[in-house]
Amino acid sequence: MQPVSAKSHYLKALFWVSILIVPFAFVQLHLVQNDFQMDYWVVPLLVVVLLAGLWGRITQLNAIQKRESILFKAVVDFSLEFTYVRTVEGEYEFVSPAVLEITGYSPEDFYQTPNFMDAIIYEEDRVAWLSHVQNVNCNGCPEKIELRIKTKRNEIRWLEHLCGPVSNSNNEVIGVRSINIDITERKLASEKVERLGFYDPLTDLPNRRFINDYISNLIENNEKSDLDEHFSVFFVDFESL
Description:
Elements: H1 6-32, H2 42-77, E1 82-87, E2 92-95, H3 98-103, H4 107-112, H5 116-120, H6 126-139, E3 143-150, E4 156-167, E5 173-182, H7 184-198, H8 208-224
Antiparallel strand pairs: 1-2, 1-5, 3-4, 4-5
């Protein structure tokens, strides 16, 4: 994509403004007033230059904004991350196509329902999610959290949710931009590795490390408790039988 050329926009503006103003000035000075002195052309020419400069600047800014919008859309449309931009009130202004693969819902579902993200958060993570939303909307603090969602296919997926505020010229938070990465496979692999550390891979029974940690927790909790509670441990060595 070619960069926006300021010169071409100003030349086009000068051309069109000249076509619009010069003929009228010619008719006014030559045919109506019947006077064609060059001094009378100073004002029309100044008007042409000023309008051309203003028009050229506006068209240049519009072209830059359009180019940036196309580049942004080209990047996020092919991204595997689910990205969205919403207002503080919850209206979604942009939702990337990757949302369909991750959640099962289309961007239109988000556009039609404000705060649609709230509805797909897993029940056990909803309190943490609402607290996060409140913090970002009110305090404008960028945050990263891990949470679960329930997809349209009733699957549970883990997301790494990163978001930051969108502020206006007065530094007031007017929206939120967010990136959501599917980390379900990473979470499942981590849980599997953690389980292998505490359970026997053949019998799926708790191993010695699990027992040691469990007893240590019992001792620690018993020492902190005001209740006079006791527990006992019974060992059976199957290898000696």
